[in-house]
Model the fold of this input.
Amino acid sequence: MKPAPWIVALSNQIINEILARLDWIGIPTSPEDGSTDCEKKTYSYRLLDYACGEGVISRGIFNYIDEAWGIDLSSRMVNSFNLRAAAFDMPKRKRMFAVQGDLLNPDSKKAGGFLKGKEWFGFDAAVMSMALHHVEEPGAAVRVLVERLKVGGPVVLVDWVKGTTVKEWKGEGEGCAVHGKYELDRHGHAEHGHTEPGHAEHGHNEHEHNKHEHAMPGAHTTTRDGFTKDEMVKMLEEAGCVDVGFVEMEDMSLLEFGEKRMWKRLFLAKGVKAG
Done:
C-alpha cells in the first residue's frame, strides 16, 4: 500500500534533517581510511536502527554507512524492511537487514534471545526515530541503546517536542469559531509551519499512530505528548553520553487522522558514548 502524502513528507523531513546534521551528530561523511572507493574500504561502519520499522532511516542515510542492522518488535515491519533492503541498490560489500527483537528484553526468545551475542554490540552509531514516546520507560530504552555502541559512537533520537501540538478543526465548535483556524492543546504555543517533501523515496507506515500498527519495544507501551530538551539531555547523560545536543526542527510536521489534522514539532537529540 502506498503511504499517505503526509507520511512521506514526515519521513523526508526527518531524513533531510539528519543528513544536514551528520557532522553535528558525529557520523563521518567520508571513509575513515581515506578511501574514496567504498569497495576498497578496510573499515565497515555499522548503524544500529532500533524500532526500525520499514527502514526509512537506514535507507535514507545509507550512502554514509556500510551496514544497517535493524531491530523491530513487529515481524511485519521486519519483513517489510528486508524486502525493501533486498530491492535497494547497494555495493556488494554493504549490507542492510532487520531482525525481530527487543533490546529491553534481550533474553526473550520470542523477541530475539540472540541479541546478547557480541556481534550486537560495538556499533559505530545508533538511531531511534519516532518510537521513544511510545516506550513506558524511555530512559531505559536510551540506556540500552547506548550500551550497544562502541566508545565514541553517537546515538541519534528523533521524536516530538512536548507541548507543541497545534490542531486544525474542520468545523465550528467550542473554542474555534471560524472554520480553518488553529487551536492549541493545553500545552501548546501559537505557531505553525510547513513540511517540504524533500528527496526520500519512501514513507513508513509506522508513523500512522492512529492505527497502532508499529509494535514498540518493551513489554509495556504508552503514548506521551513528547519530550522537553531537559528531559532528553538528562536521559542521554544518565545513559553515559557526553557531547549531548538537542535541536528543534524549524518546520512543524503535519499529521492527518481521517478528517482530523494537527501539527507538531520534531526534535533531533544526540549524544556520544563516553569512554
In short: Residues 174 and 183 are 10 Å apart (CA to CA). The radius of gyration is 19 Å. The longest helix spans residues 5-20. Confidence is low (pLDDT under 50) at residues 169-220.
